[in-house]
Please model this.
Amino acid sequence: MNSLIVLRTLGMLLLCEAVAMFPSVVVALIYRENTIFAFIVSIAITTMIGLTLFSIRVKDKIIRYKEGFAIVTFGWLMVSVLGALPFLFTGAITSVIDAFFETVSGFSTTGATIINNIEVLPRSLLFWRSFTHWLGGMGILVLALALAPVLGVGTFQILKAESPGPISTKLTPRVNNTAKILYITYTVITAAEILLLVLGGMPLFDSFIHTFGTLGTGGFSIKNASVGAYNSVYFDIVITVFMIASGVNFSLYYIAFRRKSPAGFFKDVEFRTYISIIAVAITFITINLNGKVFDGVLQSLRHAAFQVASIITTTGFTTTDFDLWPDFSRAVLFVLMFVGACAGSTGGSVKVIRINLMFKYMKREVNRLIHPRAVTAVKIGNTPVQEEVLSGVMAFVMFYMIIFIVASLLLAVQGHDLVSSVAAVAATLGNIGPGFGMVGPATTYSALSGFSKLLLSFCMILGRLEIYTVIALLSPRFWKR
Amino acid sequence: MRIIIVGAGKVGYQLVESLAKENHDILVVDTDQEVLDRINDNFDVLTKKGNGISSSLLKGLNIEGWDLLIAVTNSDEANIVACITAKKVGVKTAIARVRNPEYVVELDFMRSNLGIDYIINPEHATANEIIRLLLSTYASYAADFAKGQVRMSEIIIEAASGFAGKQIKDIKLPARVVITAITRNGEVIIPNGFDYVMPDDTLYIMGEKGVVDSVAKTAGVRIVNNRVKDVMIIGGGKIGYYLAKGLERLDINVKIIEQDIERCRELAEGLNDALVLHGDGTDITLLKAENVECMDAFIAVTGYDEENLLVSVLAKQMGAKKVIAKVSRSNYTSVLETIGIDNAVSPKLITASDILRIVRGGRIVSISLLIGGQAEVVELIPQEGAPVLNRPLKELGMPRSIIIGAILRKGKVMIPNGDSVIKSSDRVIVFTLDSHIDKVTQLFSRKGGGISIHELINSAKNAGDAASM
Model:
């Protein structure tokens, strides 16, 4: 492996992170908070390490598979470690593990928190915490690619390793243009949501925070009761719509914009499946809640829609404590945790396209039993899916389930109850945030042991980088020459 | 007529043979001198050695103003390029043989942007013919024209239908459909506004596809369509592929058996719902396992006539309702009926009639027989100078039994009325009783150049070896 290019790229990444910390300084200045010093020190440290690494001279500038995996995995680890500095320096979080957990949760757009009373934190720190969602959503390396096309050949490996979904495509011939387009789309939608929230009467700062949480499908709020604290139908609707929109493959927006027609959305099989799943889940939960938890269909619909959108897009905002809902509704939400959003969106978990392919694969196997001589191709729309992609998807689902099972066992062995253990892993591996039981919407992850927090942090990174990128690095073969 | 033929392979040779008999001026271009020598020995034509794609060669031949270029080399791409070049050099009409299924979806693009007037695809034409045979076996039927934009549908009126017992003028029909004919007790009626629709009548309505379907729904009747439900195809070559693709589109269950595993994979990728099976079509256990006895139709289109005939007979014995075999050689035609094969199709004959249709000036795009052959629906392009052009329809003095069902202009479907005018670039879909086909041909052809459709089809058979291979 070409370690030098990996280090140099990591250096550039840290420089980007240092830049990304500046807006928080501005927030601190605006609100005259005493956190400025903490941020400046964090920026200084990050810049120093970044510059040192970036100054490494590299002869061979080619990024291959291995380098791509290493850059992305180590990049995410380093960014999370350094991103935790402001939490530590401000004293908001004292434990190193906790600060790391919170930052990983931010960048991986999970939204799981260990802070019990969020409302007392300084605003600049809250801004940084939510800004990590926004950066992590589209991918911090993708951002680096968009901003600094100084890297060598093969940057597509990075894009592939970081962006979610079984098949990555470039929108334009050049990777950095693709990255730019993705970020421009992302920024435009972000601006739209902030505008709508502000127009509805949400304070500007709160609008920024909740928009970062929505677009990145993260879910960090600045209220202990999350979006529910505002108790506004308008905010609920705006955020529900934008959560669903953030779970859609972002290249579809670009294509729709280019063709000046939204037809592409409805032609996209994954989008159709995604919308159908959401519709069905909302219907079931609304019926289940009506009369039992909320009076009136509209109230039930409002909360069902918000929670379903929040869970399937792996955002994790809540308007109500869904852990108190009837078992059927909770079961539906739990299932949605394993579905996730569309490939190429900012959402996490398994992804609709993989679920779709998995069912088609199973259908084919059954078909094969009935017609042993049949030759079949699994297709998405009219496009045949290559066998390698298909087996990759199957292996992904298996990996996902095995990691889910092992991590759940590791939590349960420490004496946590079954529901909490299972839900904590499902909610972190899927980058969702709130789970059930001990880690439900009304509680936080703070009661878990240090080991559990590290384990779940690992799950979050695994989930965000879609397992393979990280697993490849853990394989002994990776390190052989 | 002055005709250039590019490519003197089997097809080219056959074309020369049939066209030379008919006093056309023919110029043959090929790269192989030996073949050209053989042609020169046998026919009174001009030959030129060279690459038919080359513009300098074509220009040098002074073919500006020639009527027709037929490109039938082995390569689709060469044929396409030869046609484009010829059109640029000034040949009036160009025909290319294009067989690759990937290009079939591009035909419209080629016509409108590359200027290729006709594209001959023997396998596609054969598959369409088979589909037509399958559908027309049954009394009830729907046929699509103008690339599926216009549909002719047969609707059986039940007693409970909202149409029953009403005069046609009282039936509210959307603007884009017409009732072309009614059959009652086997008698064909060309209706006017005062005719009544009775229960058990069969209406033939024509119009834009979606509208026709919705009319059928509002009439409270089901569209009687595609009674064929299950079809088994042996042989996954080009014909098998086109056939499966076409049948799929009609919601017919298709099983296709192919020997070559690689080809099976290609088929599976290209087809959506059809079941692709890897195996030998003559393997009885496989046929039985796949329920050949339950098939409404069994179609053998492998590359070998003998195999096609043999498995067809086998399938018939095992209980398949209708069997169709592709038979390229005409020697076998006499035995077909005695061995129980329902239909045999010959790509050669189909291609021959296609090319001759064009050469002889008939611009008929597709023909469909209805009501047991008593009526036909013909899709055609009027010739320049034809009497039907540029005059309101009501002034043409057409008999009532000829109905201009739809006009396709620039991709848009229009349902004409008496004031509508047909222009030379239109495609027209005409419903006519059998007795008035000659009149249709007169109307749509240049004066003096009128050839009846029957003549066309017959002459295609005679001149017919302008081949498919």
In short: Residues 122-136 of chain B form the longest helix (15 residues). Confidence is low (pLDDT under 50) at residues 222-226, 448-469 of chain B. Chain B touches chain A at residues 261, 264-265, 267-269, 272, 275-279, 286, 289-290 (CB under 8 Å).
